Amino acid sequence: MKLQLKDFERGISKYWEVVNSRSGCVQDTETEFPKFAGIYLWLPVVIVSSFLAGTLVGTGRAQTSPRKPPKYIQVDSMKVQPANEDDYVKVEKEGWKPIHQERIKQGKLHSWYFFGVDFPSGTETKYNDVTVNTFDQWGQLENPYADLGAMAQKSSSGNEHGRVLCPHDQSSGDREN
Question: CB 3.0–4.6 Å: which of 17, 23, 69, 100 could bond 112 by disulfide?
């Protein structure tokens, strides 16, 4: 049944007749309730939205491809001790990011994201950093780091984090033992 405008207006008129027939205190409460509800009914929406936005805020550490959306997503979570967080972020940005950029160039990876989780926080949290790898094909997930050594060497260009990921002397090509 479709509500007609005249039926709606009649209902509103009856509502206000009932409100006006009540005591002054009840009238004040019923008159103020729509304002109160309008303000406070949005509060849970704002809280949930703020929570989701706060936990998934990117920290500017993402690498994406301009292609169509990926079909497969791999999410890895890491628990890094607070004292090691700066070093860990540096390894991700200076060591792993170039490798993932190379993987994207070679079509082995669609995109890579690195997020620091700011909320919730504390020693009881299960993880505080997240990486997300996205793939176009299932086969790309089967052995994604098959040629990690070559990619690390190619992408590191002599930076210390590349050597951590691919431990060899880049000037002579000798492996460290």
Answer: 100
